[in-house]
Amino acid sequence: MNAIARIPFDTDSFQEPPPHHPEAEVITRRRYRTVWISDIHLGTRGCNARMLIDFLDHVDSDTMYLVGDIIDGWRMKKRFYWPPAHNDVVWRVMKRAKRGTRVVYIPGNHDEMFRQFAGLSFGGVEIRRTAIHETADGRKLLVLHGDEFDAIMLAHRWLAFAGDAAYQMLMRLNLVVNAIRRCIGLPYWSLSKHAKHKVKNAVSFIGRFEDVVAHEAGARGVDGVVCGHIHTAETRRIGDVDYYNDGDWVESCTALVEHFDGRMDVLHWADEIAEREAGTPARGLALAA
Fold this sequence. Notes:
Elements: H1 2-5, E1 30-37, H2 49-58, E2 59-66, H3 73-78, H4 84-98, E3 102-105, E4 121-122, E5 125-127, E6 131-134, E7 140-143, H5 151-155, H6 157-183, H7 191-198, H8 200-219, E8 224-227, E9 234-238, E10 241-245, E11 254-258, E12 264-268, H9 269-277
Parallel strand pairs: 1-2, 2-3, 3-5, 7-8, 8-10
Antiparallel strand pairs: 1-11, 4-5, 6-7, 9-10, 11-12
Helix pairs in contact: 2-4
């Protein structure tokens, strides 16, 4: 909690000082009815803050859900790390709330210190443990982080912390790999995501997690569920339930969006940037003025 208090940001006066990275001057922002993002892990070196800043500068929505692990309290308890780009992410979220976007923050396991404030609102950001979202086509979606259904988190908390340490080592290697790729003109590529999909046990865990979350959503009488936690973006039908995972901004850099007719899509922002830089804007994304 002390580490969180050291973040140089005041929700009552977030306009001063201005962001380190000014908002991009975009001709037309892409607009959606709803946006879900999670697992940003601000406060860690693995966070792709610059890519998220680009996303926030190009995409608007009527409602935005922050689906947990926005700030990595676990990592910040061990070592404080908060570069200007991380402050700029928070600045943009708060600015969005001030402009009229409904912003709902559902803390996860890495930012669980904020769960005690559930039911309160700070700077226009509502804090909730869970939420029910009604889509434009009338479906009710349960929105939650997802660690509630992680058997490792519930039964062996010490193992979860050990796994987090190993994951951080992989993410540091991921930074080195992508620094080299940038030097030779290659786009972003997630080493950790590649490794996870190559490991049979990880793939099996993801499948079991999705089934458990969908089953719980069905038991609660909703039409679908939106979660994060496992850093694996997905949209699929499981039984009678629509399962959605918005991914993360450490490995895959993805967001879940709802169109104004209720359709749902996952945006892979690294691909969006690559297409834009190649001169072929994806699905109507406007270039900087």
